[in-house]
UniProtKB/TrEMBL annotation, chains A, B:
The keyword Transferase applies. InterPro entries: Class_I_gatase-like, DJ-1/PfpI, INH-QAR. One of its GO terms (biological process) is regulation of DNA-templated transcription. Keywords: Glutamine amidotransferase, Transferase. It comes from the Bacteria. Residues 2-162 form the DJ-1/PfpI domain. This is Glutamine amidotransferase. One of its GO terms (molecular function) is transferase activity. Pfam families: DJ-1_PfpI (PF01965).
Length: 214, 214
């Protein structure tokens, strides 16, 4: 089982590495980081550089496709090479997945039309023009399409996937070995739970956060 | 405020990237990935390559030091260059921190003697020969020394740190923007919560998991 993680400049690191950490522990799985060209790819902060091992055209039929989000998704979703690759990979994939605004790339490739999907809470509405039905849920399964909400939610998505693919025992093992027993010291991780003042403040700055100008 | 993330071959990716994702959002923070030599560093799975921007000797006085864990920690904790750097950096740091078996490097450098600390649940006992007092807690503060348990716990540690450094408002903002509202589909993330059969099975295989042979 080959799992392809799609990188592009301006991706958000945890969107990719969270699920990578969990899914790479799937027995028999081969993980590969891919980008338009093989080589270094810079994250949204400009301070992390990850190597894409393969160019997109070198990985033609992954079993799982995972697209992270990040401010760079605004540019990537206009890149016909990326979108064409997503359509081709999706034609034979078992699971086509995204984290955060990675769902915008899937949507722009035409893969989420008529489907329930999710994204970063600040970017849910951007799915609508592509015919997707945004939900506020953390992880959304619609057939083989699996989308996760903002940044950290990819870890939860990966555990769901591990359960579906390899069963509860494997998923629980990965959770135990990664000691994923979250104990955040605050309870502000969603727009429903955070102070409403903060939520309102960031809604007005959404373009800035999500890189409308990128 | 400069935050140095120490890389070495065989590090566990989420140990580093989880806290990096959260701490890099601290206003005014400068993050830097460092390793014995600048350049590519491979993770424990051998499928992720992250660039260390600077060599250790180029970063002499970071405000925060963060050491991730991973099977490669067994070798790194015998590396006198790394240990000497940790002692020097610690002499002027505001916070000296670790995730997972990263605490073994701090311990081997002599920094945790007489201190409460934590590590991956399978590796707590390995802190004892260095004079540290292992606890089963997820995040342990002892003065400026902050240690987190296995892999994913670095995310919680980072939120604690953000709160101490910049206040609750900033920490809640980072939690909201990373949508860190964990909803794992299983409840097996600690040896107390996981099926005891699994826990026992992995205790007998601890050397394999944590890379005793690495």
């Amino acid at each position: 089982m080959q799992i392809a993680f799609v990188l592009y400049d301006g991706f958000t690191s945890l969107d990719a590495i969270g699920p990578y950490e969990m899914l790479s522990r799937l027995p028999g799985a081969e993980t590969v980081f891919v980008a338009e060209e093989a080589g270094p790819v810079q994250n949204d902060q400009g301070t992390l550089v990850v190597a894409a091992e393969r160019a997109l055209h070198e990985v033609t039929a992954p079993d799982i496709v995972l697209v992270p989000g990040g401010p760079g998704s605004r540019r990537a979703m206009l890149d016909e090479t990326v979108l064409a690759w997503l359509r081709t990979a999706d034609a034979t994939s078992t699971w086509t997945t995204s984290v955060c605004t990675g769902s915008h790339l899937l949507a722009a490739a035409g893969l989420l039309e008529g489907r329930r999907a999710t994204s970063h809470w600040l970017a849910l509405d951007d799915l609508v023009p592509f015919g997707a039905e945004p939900t506020g849920e953390r992880v959304v399964f619609d057939g083989k399409y699996v989308t996760a909400a903002g940044v950290s939610s990819g870890i939860d998505m990966a555990l769901h996937l591990l359960g579906r693919i390899a069963g509860d025992e494997v998923a629980r093992t990965v959770q135990l070995l990664t000691e994923y027993d979250p104990q955040p010291p605050y309870d502000a991780g969603s727009p429903q739970k955070a102070p409403q003042r903060l939520v309102a403040q960031w809604r007005t700055r959404a373009g800035l956060v999500l890189g409308a100008d990128a």
